[in-house]
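This part of the workshop introduces the protein records we will be handling. As an example, a complete record with its sequence and its structure tokens follows.
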Amino acid sequence: MIRSALSENDPVVVRQIQAIVREVCASGAADRAIVWGKLTADEKSGFMAMLNAPLIAPEDAQKLRDIASIWWDKFYPDLLESLMAQMFGWQAGSNYDRATIEQWLQTEDELVRSRITELLNYSEVI
């Protein structure tokens, strides 16, 4: 599973596989040291690099923060569509699935988290 996750070259997939491997090892169905020992040095370093990679590209993260902290006060609530256009028109909202954005939001402050969540919810309605 780890090798297939690495072939995806996607930090989200690698984090999902890590959670599965952790659960399997915790249940006693596999030994973490043995699983880890079967990987090559390159696979180990690639896996760790993917785990440490940002979920969202730094430039997209900054765009989302700017929408929540700068543009929100100018456009909300009267021009909510303008905020949506910024989020999705600038690609920051459409480069990632909702689950990835929600996972990233857990690392952000409450202001960014609540405002971007509101835009995500609104985007499902329209």
In short: The two ends are 38 Å apart (CA to CA).
